[in-house]
Amino acid sequence: MAARINHQLFFPHPPEAVWEYLTNAELMEQWLMPNDFKPIAGHEFTFRIKPIPSMDFDGIVYCRVLEIVPFKKLSYTWKMGPGDGTVNIDSTVSWELHPKDNGTNVLLDHGDFIIMKSITAFNAMEKGWLENMHKMNDKLNA
């Protein structure tokens, strides 16, 4: 059975407002992590946080934008590891936005794990994505 993280959350904002928080590096930093994201297919970027040795994570997530459909879909690769050149998680993150009743249904799918050597990191990401989605919604509501 393939591991997947799936979350859905309703945002009382139009897709355009949510999209800004998914594709603007400065706004992404407010709810996720510092990054050098650019909304360009093929762009390679990183997310950076403090290392977490207990999860064999050096604090850098290596990503590449796979698909951008403005106001509808964003997907990128997600690779991380202990910093010695090896990867212990290699996966794909996809966001879908669906307008609905004066707002937007936001769907997150973190899956397509080519490598997933750490169940601890997977469990932390599952919880963390939902917390971060709520944080994004709070920023939009501020």
Structural summary, described in words:
It is a single chain. The protein is of the alpha+beta class and 142 residues long. It has a single domain, classed as 2-Layer Sandwich (Alpha-D-Glucose-1,6-Bisphosphate, Chain A, domain 4), CATH 3.30.530.20. The chain has helices at residues 15-23, 25-31, 119-141, and strands at residues 5-11, 44-48, 60-69, 73-80, 89-99, 104-116. It has a 6-stranded antiparallel β-sheet, with helices on one face. Helix 1 crosses helix 2 (25-31). It is globular and about 45 Å long. The model has no long low-confidence stretch (mean pLDDT 95).
Task: Please describe the structure with a list of short key phrases separated by commas or semicolons.
142 residues, alpha+beta, Alpha-D-Glucose-1,6-Bisphosphate, Chain A, domain 4, 6-stranded antiparallel beta sheet, 3 helices, 6 strands
